[in-house]
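Hey, I'm writing a tutorial for new members on how sequence and structure tokens pair up, and I'd like a real worked example in the thread rather than a made-up one. If someone can provide the structure for the chain below, I'll link this post from the tutorial.
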Amino acid sequence: AVTAMDYSEPCIRRMREEQAKRREASGGDAGVAVRYDVMDVTAMSYRDAQFGAVLDKATLDTLFQNEDGEGESVRAALRESSRALRAGGVFICISYSGPDDRLEALERPEYGW
């Protein structure tokens, strides 16, 4: 199962609509079903250790820009991602920034990855 989340309710609504269109156009088989949730990455309601993988696609970039560096929302997002990730799971970060700009924040021992 795949779960996708975003803070933007209009974004999630559109993704749900697009998935429904694909399902209808394909006669009910639109490939992998995705659950779309509206949620704040800094305070997720997912269970502890719910996911085998967590993928960040530029969310951290946005948080870094909003705070002009590694602030509390960056740390909160990483804590929440770590909490929702199973032991041995994988955190994948797709970023516009290079490793030198992100590794210090990502390699904190409290995240456990």
